[in-house]
Amino acid sequence: MDDLMLTARAAVLADLTARKQATPSAVDALEEALAQRQWWAEQWPEGREYVAGLVAQDVQDALFEAGLRWPLCLHCAEAPEHSLYIQPDLGGPDPMWICEESAQASAPLGHL
Questions:
Q1: pTM of the predicted model, to two decimals?
Q2: C-alpha 55: how far from its chain's center?
Q3: Is omega for the bond preceding 24 within 30 degrees of 0, making it cis?
Q4: Is the model's pLDDT at 24 over the cut of 70?
Q5: Closest CA to 103 of 82, 18, 11, 78
Q6: How far is CA 36 from CA 21, 39, 51, 88, 97, in A?
Q7: d(CA 13, CA 35)
Q8: Is 49 left (phi over 0), alpha (psi -120 to 50) or beta?
Q9: Residue 97 host element (H or E)
């Protein structure tokens, strides 16, 4: 695994851990996303700056399919339970977690 993938893995794992979601199934989803994005980055080297955000989106999608919202917004106390999402949509450069309801930046990827 190259530095790009290790950096992406560290950022997403840090956010999973910060929200107490670094379960075996979540880590499996992370490893699967890394394998898929490794191939993607090899096919499109100019897109390497997008990999970390795309890996986070892939893990978020996998967890959602398993019935889990991650990461939840912790700032909107009055709103119904809702997730953060990665902005920009393509995942980079400089991916940020954004509140689904308020559209306010919550944290850079890897810093929840």
A1: 0.93
A2: 6
A3: no
A4: yes
A5: 82
A6: 21, 5, 10, 20, 22
A7: 15
A8: alpha
A9: strand 96-99
Reading the block at residue 64, the tokens are: 């959602």
- Single-letter amino acid code for the residue at 17: T
Q: Using CA atoms, how far apart are residues 8 and 57, in angstroms rounded to an integer?
A: 11
10 and 106 Cβ atoms separated by less than 8 Å: no
What pLDDT, in 10s, does the model give residues 36-67? Answer: 999 999 999 898 899 999 999 999 999 999 99
Amino acid of residue 19: R
Contact at 8 Å (CB) between 41 and 51?
Answer: yes
Q: Please list, residue by residue across 61-92, b when 16 or more beta carbons sit within 10 angstroms of its beta carbon and e when fewer do.
A: ebbeeeeeebbebeebeeeeeebbbbbeeebb
Is the pLDDT reported for residue 1 higher than 80? no
